[in-house]
Specification:
This protein has helices at 15-31, 61-64, 67-71, 115-119, 172-180; strands at residues 2-9, 36-44, 52-58, 84-93, 105-110, 125-132, 138-145, 159-164, 169-170. The chain is of the alpha+beta class and 181 residues long. Strands 1-3-2-8-5-7-6-4 form an eight-stranded antiparallel β-barrel.
Length: 181
Amino acid sequence: MIYTVECSFADPVSEAEWNDFYSLDKLPALISVSGFHTSQRFKALSRGCPAYLALHSIDGLDILTGEEYRRKGGGNFARWQQHITDWHRNLYGGIDRAPAIAEGEYLALSATGPDPLVRLGLTPSAMRAVAMEKVPEHRWLAKVERSAGPDIEQLPVDVHLYAPMTAQLRNEHHASFEKER
């Protein structure tokens, strides 16, 4: 399943420090939670959506309600919470693992259907909201090569483009466990 966390940040003075905290402290803590498999952060390049997106591949909703998740900072941004705006969390089924988006790639998301992504020459994967806010109910995501990517100014209104802020982190304990199985 794919756990999404989206938000914007309202304090430009501390935004860089917050991004360091999220990327260097929070993401590594979350990926160490049993049931988390991958985590990656993104910054929106298009308008009309929260500025930041985190995609996590997890086993299911019970991971997010567990003690280990809470103990390692899940659902809590500590001293940054007061500056977080437009915060949304969803759990999507339909895809087991989020694609790793490399430095030379973008992530494209659409909530209106696969067609806008297909028209851009992309191959979308479908997700359906199964828990948390459940809005948007459906989403389609696709990996985009930057060199072949669409002009950001010419994107359809219903497509949002994101650049990776971090490499995709993997829970190495789970990776080695899955190989043994």
